[in-house]
């Protein structure tokens, strides 16, 4: 069955770089895109970016200067790197499989999420 | 960016009751709308896509409707397992954007 699982450090120092991995199973990264979405504690959802099935990427303009999404199809892994982290980047980071409906697509399967705290 | 405004922000209802949650888009999104359910401590789960299509495995008491800028999620015969926060999301234009959420509790 389709599964996504995020992994990465739970604590990041301010101004440092966040690196997260989303490991997927049950589908191919060359057939589906994968999105990163984040959720500050007790708040709503913010789409961060997408890596499409062809390897191209799209980013939220608010994060574009700090964000990079890449993948390793042989390992079924998608990577997120975001630099210059601040306390307001504290959030649960989730990866989600995307669809090609509309322009941005909706998200039919989600990982469990990983809590990232930005603090010294 | 397209702004998605959900109402109400919170809702208390009794078992067996019918519940309606509204989502208003800042511009026409041509039914490119999804609804998600997020239970406490869990990740979101897709309920509805294309405004009114039920995702596989979702109980039929959930339904979606709407067009243009106004959409709604209806839950018939509320069950205890429906206690959750519900989000709408538009995918008609970049970036995909979410509503602020509606927290549903039991009365």
Structure characterization notes:
Chain A is mainly β and 120 residues long. Chain A is 0% helix and 49% strand. Chain A has no helices and eleven strands. In chain A, strands 2, 4, 5, 6, 9, 10 and 11 form a seven-stranded mixed beta sheet that branches. In chain A, strand 4 and strand 5 form a beta hairpin. The mean pLDDT of chain A is 95. Chain B has 107 residues and is mainly beta. Chain B is 0% helix and 50% strand. The radius of gyration of chain B is 13 Å and the shape is globular. In chain B, the strands form two sheets. In chain B, strands 2, 4, 5, 6, 9, 10 and 11 form a seven-stranded mixed beta sheet that branches. In chain B, strands 1-3-8-7 form a four-stranded antiparallel beta sheet, with no helix packed on it. In chain B, strand 4 and strand 5 form a beta hairpin. Chains A and B meet through strand 10 of A and strand 5, strand 9 and strand 10 of B.
Key attributes of the depicted protein:
heterodimer; A: 120 residues; mainly beta; 7-stranded mixed β-sheet; 4-stranded antiparallel β-sheet; globular; B: 107 residues; 11 strands; 50% strand
List the SSEs and their pairings.
The complex is a heterodimer of chains A (120) and B (107).
Chain A: E1 3-7, E2 11-12, E3 18-25, E4 34-39, E5 46-51, E6 57-59, E7 67-72, E8 77-82, E9 91-98, E10 107-110, E11 114-118
Parallel strand pairs in A: 2-11
Antiparallel strand pairs in A: 1-3, 3-8, 4-5, 4-9, 5-6, 7-8, 9-10, 9-11
Chain B: E1 4-7, E2 10-13, E3 19-25, E4 33-38, E5 45-49, E6 53-54, E7 62-67, E8 70-75, E9 84-90, E10 97-98, E11 102-106
Parallel strand pairs in B: 2-11
Antiparallel strand pairs in B: 1-3, 3-8, 4-5, 4-9, 5-6, 7-8, 9-10, 9-11
């Amino acid at each position: 069955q389709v599964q996504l699982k995020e992994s990465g450090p739970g604590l990041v120092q301010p101004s440092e770089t966040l690196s997260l991995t989303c490991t997927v199973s049950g589908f191919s990264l060359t057939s589906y895109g994968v999105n990163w979405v984040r959720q500050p504690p007790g708040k709503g959802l913010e789409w961060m970016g997408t890596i499409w099935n062809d390897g191209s990427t799209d980013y939220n303009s608010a994060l574009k200067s700090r964000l990079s999404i890449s993948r390793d199809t042989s390992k079924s892994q998608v990577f997120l790197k975001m630099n210059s982290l601040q306390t307001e980047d504290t959030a649960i980071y989730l990866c989600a499989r995307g669809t090609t409906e509309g322009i941005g697509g909706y998200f039919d399967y989600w990982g469990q999420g990983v809590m990232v705290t930005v603090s010294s | 960016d397209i702004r998605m405004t959900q109402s109400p922000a919170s809702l208390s209802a009794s078992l067996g009751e019918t519940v309606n949650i509204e989502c208003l888009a800042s511009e026409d999104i041509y039914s490119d709308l999804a609804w998600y359910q997020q239970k406490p401590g869990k990740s979101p789960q897709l309920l509805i896509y294309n405004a009114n299509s039920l995702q596989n495995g979702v109980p039929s008491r959930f339904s979606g409707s709407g067009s243009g800028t106004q959409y709604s999620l209806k839950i018939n015969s509320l069950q205890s397992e429906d206690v959750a926060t519900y989000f709408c999301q538009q995918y008609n234009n970049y970036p995909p954007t979410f509503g602020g959420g509606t927290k549903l509790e039991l009365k």
